[in-house]
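hey team, just a heads up i'm posting the complex here instead of the shared drive bc the drive is being weird again. everything in one block, sequence lines first with there labels, then the predicted structure for the whole assembly after. its three chains so it's a bit long, scroll down
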Amino acid sequence: MYRYDEFDAALVQERVEEFRDQVERRASGALTEDQFKPLRLMNGVYLQLHAYMLRVAVPYGVMNGAQMRRLGRIARTYDKGYGHFTTRCNIQYNWPALTDLPAILSDLAEVEMHAIQTSGNCIRNTTTDVFAGAADDEVEDPRPWCEVIRQWSTIHPEFSFLPRKFKIAVVAAEKDRAAIRTHDVGLQIVKGADGGTAFRVFVGGGQGRLPHIGQEIAAAVPGHELLAYLTAIIRAWNLLGRRDNIHKARIKILVASMGIEAFREEVDRHFATLRQEDLRIPDDELARIQSYFAPPAFTNLPRQSAAFDRAVLADPDFARFSRNNVRRHKQAGYASVIISLKPVDGVPGDITDAQMELVADLAERYSFDEVRAAYEQNLVLPHVRLDDTPALWRELLAAGLATPNADLVTDIIACPGLDYCSLANARSIPVAQALSKRLADLDYQEKVGPLRINMSGCINACGHHHVGHIGVLGVDRKGEEYYQITVGGSPDEQAALGEIVGRSVPADEVAPAIARALDRYLEIRTEGERFIDTVRRLGADPFRDAIYAGEAADA
Amino acid sequence: MKVITANRLTDGRVIYVAADGAAVDDLSQAAVLEVAEAEAALALAAARPDVFVNPYLVETDHGVFTGRDRLKETIRSAGPTVGNSLNHREPA
Amino acid sequence: MPELQLLESVQNGPRLNVTTLLDEVEAAAAGTDVLVLEFDAFRDGRGFSLASVLRERGYTGRLIAAGKLLPDQARHLRRSGFDAVELSPGADLATWRRMDEAFDAAYQPAIDPAPTIWRRRAAARAATPPKPEGDLHALAEKLNAQVAGADAGVILKAALEPALGLRTAAISSFGAESAALLHLIAEQDPALPVVFLETGQHFFQTLQYRSQLTAKLGLTDVRLVSPDAAEKADLDARDDLWKTDADACCDLRKTRPLARATTGFTALITGRKRYQNADRAALLPFEVLDGVLRVNPLANWTSETVEDHLVAHALPRHPLVEQGYASIGCHTCTRPVETGEDARAGRWSGMDKTECGIHVGRREPIAA
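-- predicted structure starts here --
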């Protein structure tokens, strides 16, 4: 993974000092809260319902053991002993004091981490496929490009006061495991005409009040023109994006209102006159960054592992874990292991300081000192020997980190909701917990197969409910918490927005309604058909009937 | 009746304004105001950004939140209803 | 780097709000050599793009920012092509100046001419050619004279002196006595790179000890270095090369990986000591090996000195020490020592080998 040199380290230190200065000026009154707010947001500091919230960047989801250990220490020292991983692969702390923040940022800087631009109207953390470098369908590893984008976008003088936030995601395969079509800009690495790296560029995706699926704006931008092209896109939006209404300010609104053709022309006009040679990534710099992402020193192993196979036969619990949480790796004898942060009755995405310390240790011992944060709010150890997987599983089991539900119905993506967030209309965590308790039976979950439920506590859709196979949205009906259910969304290369099935239902009816929908699915599916495919085949009606069947019975 | 609530600048915690203008953690110690005097009291709090961040008025009735945002204000006052901070809640 | 000019009086010249469309701004700029762009709100970032575009498309006149702006935006204004800012009444010049200078370098190209971090990196690489070995021998001699009789901390500090222009890393086996050197290093620079050769054949206890000691000492740059996968597949696919040719095994798992990991470093710190075996009896604090300065701060330490240091600083010990291991390498070639043997007698015992080779200098490549 990337390691800082003296320039990277100096910049992060200078940022800590700048923020310290800004906190002092806020305390002394030299800055009003209105002036201070965008400045603190650009350092990841929100003011939430109960306290400040700090969102620490995990650049493209990659961490090493030392960093994970430090995140645990920060949770223990400055917070309430836990952290929360988000749908943008960052980690959030819910209780830091403003006065502690310079010290926290300093602690982070020691392990080459920061909270720069994890919030605010600027370019946010670039995310990618959690299996980058391990997946066997990649054109090339997307992470060096994510690091290039990270550096280019950090403290960008022209793009720090945008109309709204700007999010970029990168994948390197046809299969979209980073939901790039739901981002402001989505990048897919392809082979250019000359055989070099090129980017298929999507623009205008987004969730929120008015969700959009990104549209292709360019089929193959050559790698060395990537930053110039991104500059042209963001400049076009910066100049034309609406600033009168925060709900109409994202680039998705501009693209929708201009139309993709007109927007492309505007981008091309800017592209033609900006100084592209300046923005061309120097070859030696790209090579330097790429060298940090060279594959680890894999041992030459056979594809099959006798130890793994024996353990599968001997222990049905390990067998289940291996079926759901152990993913194929391009290197023979290795696998990627998903650490689910969705135990039944837990808080989706939360992890304690002790668990973080353990995961750090496991990363060092089992996975070449690397651990990843996933879009699904889980963690992944990317490079584990199949031989070692039984021992790893036993250690995870002892720490409550071995829930074998990856991509199953209780692997719920959920925002923190009204328990934490001042924007929320309704709570999401208790609803997610009720759902996962109701559906806890693992045999049932495996029978249902892969099914993603996404939950958002408000229309800002931080839980990405629009692209859940089943989505749940908390709404406020006259001060009471109600939940709208959607069906048929999808975040991947077949991206689609879910359809609202009907009136919102009260909190205690969500789990029974979804359970009915799942039973219905089991009745009507064809052999081997996943839930999302049944919805595509038959539409939302069969599920609508099942979800509201309870009401009919009451009436 | 109204109370004034805000977040405390230093640690972001939920606070209320007491009768003497002090910031208090506990709703039970908050000054309960008639509508007529509430705006003036709010202006005083707003003039102290070194303590009160974004103060605003909330409707209450005998210590219970009424009004549109009652659930949110209840959660602000009592803390999260679920999750990993439950065991760590500081005493009021 | 030209500073952003801070102007305290209202400026003359055409004045446009940043809400003005680009085409109109360009038209206005074409007919003037001074232009003021007014921000109604500091959040309105259009001004930065307008300035950037004007400059890129050839405007060479004076560009002044005015209106509601924060001192924290000084740098953004300057780098986007503004020459000056017309300050609001009551603005604090000192804060503007301070925020303009808050960052020494920037990653991305912008309108300002200062070289980006990318260019500065390239320049730094080009500017430091590898030191010829002759210089290093002279340096080693000078340093040995300088530190004669001094204690380990002083030797280490001399090696870490920035003025020498060395790029330094430490090598550690995280073995029986490693805690002493690592502790001295952590006291002076916990961010110093520490290279650990992950041979794939370590005792499990060594790996656990490494984690424990790294955390306790607060070392932040421990680098695990493994053998090249392709070489290993060719030369030692069954992990049994140590039985037939231990030299070749050490070359594969230690010497060559170390050479790869330390390219670019001009100085390497080790924990070697004279007392450890006969081959090391003449060890000096500074020596030159294969074009790299080797630093041995503990050269004069005895096993008692090590023990005293571990006790005085309550440093954790390698768990195998109390099982009788005085020197700990790979589990394949390490055994406990008997009383009266020297400390490294348990290494490659029964073989005609006393050093793995990482401290001995380039060996001839083995025949394929």
